[in-house]
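In the design runs reported in the main text, the only information available to the sequence generator was the tokenized backbone. The following block is the verbatim input for one such run; it is reproduced so that readers can re-run the procedure and compare outputs position by position.
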């Protein structure tokens, strides 16, 4: 088990969204030094349970809803691309991020 703290923020369509202690998580997964959020289907994120989204505790409060929406939509697109089309996480991220970045202004 990974020794990090997480606090349930919300549940969206059965997906639990947690605020996580990124200082602890980034020691185990240095990529978290650069992330505000991620999910199981993200690049270098297989440590996140399939039905969860992690949001960094470093996310500014005024950005929280935007980051949650970004991760939720990105996760949905990537899940389909990876499970139904056998795409790699890197390729599915490129496609999904293009859409969430443009549609959500991220």
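Verbatim output:
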């Amino acid at each position: 088990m990974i020794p990090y703290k997480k606090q349930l923020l919300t549940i969206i369509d059965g997906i639990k969204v947690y605020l996580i202690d990124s200082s602890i998580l980034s020691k185990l997964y240095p990529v978290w030094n650069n992330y505000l959020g991620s999910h199981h289907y993200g690049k270098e994120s297989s440590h996140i349970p399939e039905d969860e989204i992690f949001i960094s505790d470093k996310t500014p409060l005024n950005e929280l809803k935007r980051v949650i929406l970004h991760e939720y939509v990105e996760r949905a697109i990537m899940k389909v691309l990876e499970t139904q089309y056998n795409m790699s996480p890197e390729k599915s991220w490129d496609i999904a991020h293009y859409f969430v970045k443009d549609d959500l202004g991220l």
